[in-house]
Amino acid sequence: MKIKNKKIIILIIVFLLMIIFIYQLDFTPKKIDYGVSFSPLQAERLGLDWKKAYLSIFDDLKVSRLRLSAYWNTIEAEQNIFNWQDLDWQMEEAKKREVKVVLVIGRRVPRWPECHDPSWLNDLSKEEQEEKVLNLIKEEIEHFKKYDNIVAWQVENERLFSSFGACAKSSRAFLKREIDFVKSLDNRPTITTDSGELSFWLGTSGLSDILGTTIYSKVYNRYLGYFRHIYPPFWYYLRTVMARRIFGNQKVIASELQAEPWEAGQPLKEMSLESQNKAFNLKDFRDNLFLAEKSGFDEIYFWGAEWWYWLKERGDDSFWLEAKNIFSK
Questions:
Q1: Which domain CATH number covers 57?
Q2: pTM
Q3: What does the pLDDT look like over 101-114, one tens digit per residue?
């Protein structure tokens, strides 16, 4: 009986040592390119002048890489009538500063509710909606391909991740059809994205030239409150290696690194500063970046630049200065 207990203890010790070893693994690349995602929609939700906030990201933070989104309900509020004004302005300002842009196109793009459908779409069948998505993509590519600072087309955003967002479900087959269609229209690289914590990337790997993953370490659950995921860098790196080896040397990037609080049942603007700090503080920011860098990603896009600016406008420039230091490297 004692011998059996000793074996169990030894196994537990070995297991703990393996866990410690895995957490200590460091896959940090020699050079990392940093960027941000920006959404006028989120800036307006925070009560900001979105154009002023947008220009500050370039002229103060000195961001050189940017992820922008094409919102369908803004672009085609009326069927077959397209309005590119706001997004053209964003693209022109980025081009002036030689900022490299990843443009997210399609039906599902960043920021809640993820699918920003025009109201007229509801009257169509699923098949008709899919044809309209393809038409939208065609219009987007044809219009924006004149911008040579667009370095990649992100086709949809976490389109096969149905656990989050107010979106009609889609299939891998249709997502592949969208990506192949984009490739037929322009030769720049394509990106598709998936959850970094709740997916093995089996459905999305191999569909596009680049796979983007989210990294959300501090999230909210109505039963647990705020908590941190315990995934080590190895968890992300292992899947990255699999995507590269199995699916033709596919590149993997951190397309969305959490750098703002998870909204817990109320808009970020309505959360008290104390609640915001509890949800996400400067240490969380640094911990998330440390995780992303150690996981081997050589391209990282921060999520939350609008919030940093909002805080700065209220006298707290700690996140803004932290980011500024990163972009000055």
A1: 3.20.20.80
A2: 0.92
A3: 999 999 999 999 99
